[in-house]
Amino acid sequence: MPTSDYQYEEGIFDVAPEIKRDFDENGYVIIRGVLNKQEITKLRHACELEEGVKKHSYEIPDGSGKNIRLCIWRHPGNDVTSMIARMEKTAGFMGKFLGGEVYHHHSKLIQKEPYTGGLFSWHQDYGYWYKNGCLFPDMASFHLAVDKADRENGCMQILPGSHKLGRIDHTFVGGQQGADLERVNHVRKLFDLVHLELDEGDACYFHSNLLHCSSQNNSARRRWAIVTAFNRATNNPVPEESHPWPLYTPIQMMPNDALLKCENFTDLSGKAFVDPTTDKNVKTDPNSLQT
């Protein structure tokens, strides 16, 4: 079973050739401790503030009786949460994994609350983004554990190597996009299943065609995560199909200590939060929308 599992050390760790090979071969790399205790504590505080990003949250039915709660923004902005998309150890590493300049496609705060957090069906992120005009799967996501994630509270599950299958057809499952389940059932016989059990501050960098899902959170512990999606600069989407996602916009890169130095928690100008009613790939719970 593939591991693709590494430990981050500030000033030492980089995407060495063997780490890039792991990403190419398995479709993902785990880097533990990308955010240290101080950083993750500060980021969590920013996420929890009533006047912070979470005030833009809404819910999507998971197709199994529960809801997925999240908020999504299209541009990084300049607040504490923006630094996740702009530092060398996030955006810089992602450029090395994807082989060229990347830009911020979007970020989201996933909020799986105790007992109520919904599941994500088996899917590929490119199953969504292809429908938004991205012609190549030259895209990947940075999944950061804000809280400890394990099997009990609904951690992410992946099929390493499945990104080599190419894009599978996706249709609605509840309010989200899910991969063709008949095809997924065949695929699951070919690949090992890995549960991404992460401590707070650990992250997974994974390819847009990697099949993944997560179960409901039936535990007494919440599971929050920030997921930032990056696109290659050369993969600018077809403008007529890209809404609500942005076209190529260069990232204003920041050093790795930028999150610790940032003191902006509530000025969210420039982030451009997504109105889910304009996203053709999701169906929201109307009772969850802000008025």
Automatic annotation (TrEMBL):
Alphabetized Pfam families for the sequence: PhyH
InterPro entries membership: Phytyl_CoA_dOase-like (IPR008775)
Gene3D superfamilies assigned to the protein according to its UniProt record, in alphabetical order: q2cbj1_9rhob like domain
Family annotation (SUPFAM superfamilies): Clavaminate synthase-like (SSF51197)
Top-level taxon of the source organism: Eukaryota
Cofactor: Fe cation
Name of this chain's protein: L-proline trans-4-hydroxylase-like
Species the sequence originates in: Branchiostoma floridae (Florida lancelet)
Organism lineage string: Eukaryota, Metazoa, Chordata, Cephalochordata, Leptocardii
Gene of this entry: LOC118420405
